[in-house]
Amino acid sequence: MSDYTPIKCSFCGKSEYEVKTMYAGQGGSYICSTCVKRLAFEDAHLGDGAESRDPRAFGAPGRVPRPSEIKAKLDDYIVGQDDAKRVLSVAVYNHYKRVNSSDRGKADGETRLEKSNILMLGPTGSGKTLLAKTLADIINVPFAIADATTLTEAGYVGEDVENILLKLIHAAGGDVKAAERGIIYIDEIDKICRKSENMSITRDVSGEGVQQALLKILESTVASVPPTGGRKHPYQECITIDTTNILFICGGAFVGLEKIVERRMDASSIGFTGALKRGEEGYSESLKELQPDDLIKYGLIPEFVGRVPIVATLEPLDRKALVSILTEPKNALTKQYEKLFGLDGMKLKFTEKAIEAVADKAIQLKTGARGLRTVLEKAMMKIMYELPDRAEEISEVVIDEACITSGEPPKVITREIPQEANKAE
Fold it and tell me: HSE on the CB side for 127, CA within 13 Å?
């Protein structure tokens, strides 16, 4: 018995004592149950093509772009929000410097760098999700979006918090190591706040319970994720992922939070000290004075607030900002529609008045930048349905103010066809 050599997996090298089951193949090869599960996961979610598993897709970042470089790239795609861009650029730069330093190892007695997750506050349609996604593209790391409203505390109807890690693994093409350096954006985080400051005798499984469940993965833990999502059970083999180097960005509108800040500031003001501005402009002005206690009063538990120490406040978008969003970024909506028409061989032009009319209608919808596409789609649906049939004879389409405000047809410039003219003569 002392001369017995344990059987080892031909793929990962683990011995039969380290795994649950070992399967024998032809020619003396073996594969363990862990590798079987991993290969099955890759086949199910990545496909058989080699192109779906490009190892260069998410490489370990070498030189981290400086904050000024990150902001400059954000400016290419996102209009305004300069303060928020600076906060996010510095936070992401410091985070991935920390990740790279941890990869090189730590000497005894060396100062340990802690992770700082980010909380983004801003009204709907102000660009929170786009900022997070663009940051991930700049750093070239996997990115996943999760909705906090679908999560519940473990053991109840709804999704477990670990399922958001599975989305990141999918985004990384099944590469867990790449996913461990990724970014997760958790939207609607304000919807899981406690309903009141008073403790309730009933369990708040979709509010405070979710905050409690998120604490470990926000900081650092080795989480077990079911490979197909859903609930975990004792006999299920799970994917293990370390969240130490995953950057979590939490976002929410936090409607009414500015009033909490204003009440605190009004209570602490004495005599003729300047009062905070109210109204739309006052939203961002008030939140500049935000303190952790204000978030706790809003309904976030203290432990959660402590794990998102960096706060970036986004401003409501005014008319000028919406007009800029329509025309300036590389992926501006007007440029997208111009490209769509160009694929049919037609030029598309928006007049200045038309663009201003789109911005005015979006402001009435009160959905921020999201309203711009809604207005344009509604105004151009009939045009996009009818004009492709005449694409060969149309040279240019001009969208003016009347097209947006009252649905009138656009100005159409037809091509000159000298051969048909000669035949007519």
Answer: 24
